[in-house]
């Protein structure tokens, strides 16, 4: 995979990971309720679920492109519509959303279990990955290239949420984010809508 194409993949994965939603709320809740290690645990196990969906998507996309191009196109457009919906939702969120987690006491086992379940229990991740990875997967793509795509998605997702857990374990950071949540939501919303339009425009490869 050319470096420029991989950088595009990494940037889009980062945008998806950073978008406010249940995954961010999960890591925040376990960080605030159980400390830094619980937050990191939730982040790592969430990454395992994300990797599972990414792997399924990469395996299936090549077959869809080759055998069912019309079906692939319809699924891709569904993914783009989902991205646009996420963008509109973020624009309308204002100051509310993932930066207002429930403050409960949690333990490491609960953090690990919920980290996986939040990822696997969100089938919309499939739509997200279809929209994202349709820009990069081709029918003749090698197993190594597919592995690079999956690992990139996992490392960026895990790296981001581990960073969130580490940073937010310092109690002074969360109030700063809460005050600026409306700007974070607006920027995220615009970027997700732009990504949806890019998906509709066609693949990068």
UniProtKB/TrEMBL annotation:
The chain crosses the membrane at residues 49-72, 116-137, 143-171, 183-201. Its main location: membrane. One of its GO terms (cellular component) is plasma membrane. Keywords: Cell membrane, Membrane, Transmembrane, Transmembrane helix. It is a multi-pass membrane protein. The keyword Transmembrane helix applies. It is found in: Cell membrane. The lineage of its organism: Bacteria, Pseudomonadati, Pseudomonadota, Gammaproteobacteria, Oceanospirillales. This is LysE family translocator. Pfam families: LysE. GO terms for molecular function: amino acid transmembrane transporter activity.
């Amino acid at each position: 995979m050319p470096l420029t194409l991989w950088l595009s993949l990494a940037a889009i994965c980062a945008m998806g990971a950073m978008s406010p939603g249940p995954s961010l709320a999960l890591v925040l809740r376990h960080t605030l309720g159980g400390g830094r290690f619980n937050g990191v645990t939730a982040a790592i196990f969430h990454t395992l679920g994300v990797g599972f969906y990414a792997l399924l998507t990469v395996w299936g996309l090549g077959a869809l492109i080759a055998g069912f191009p019309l079906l692939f196109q319809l699924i891709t457009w569904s993914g783009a519509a989902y991205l646009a919906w996420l963008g509109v939702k973020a624009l309308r969120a204002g100051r509310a959303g993932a930066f207002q987690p429930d403050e409960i006491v949690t333990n490491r086992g609960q953090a690990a279990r919920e980290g996986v379940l939040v990822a696997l229990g969100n089938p919309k991740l499939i739509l997200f990955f279809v929209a994202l990875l349709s820009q990069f997967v081709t029918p003749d793509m090698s197993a190594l290239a597919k592995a690079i795509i999956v690992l990139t998605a996992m490392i960026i997702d895990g790296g981001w949420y581990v960073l969130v857990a580490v940073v937010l374990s310092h109690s002074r950071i969360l109030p700063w984010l809460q005050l600026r949540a409306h700007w974070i939501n607006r920027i995220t919303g615009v970027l997700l809508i732009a990504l949806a339009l890019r998906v509709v425009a066609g693949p990068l490869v």
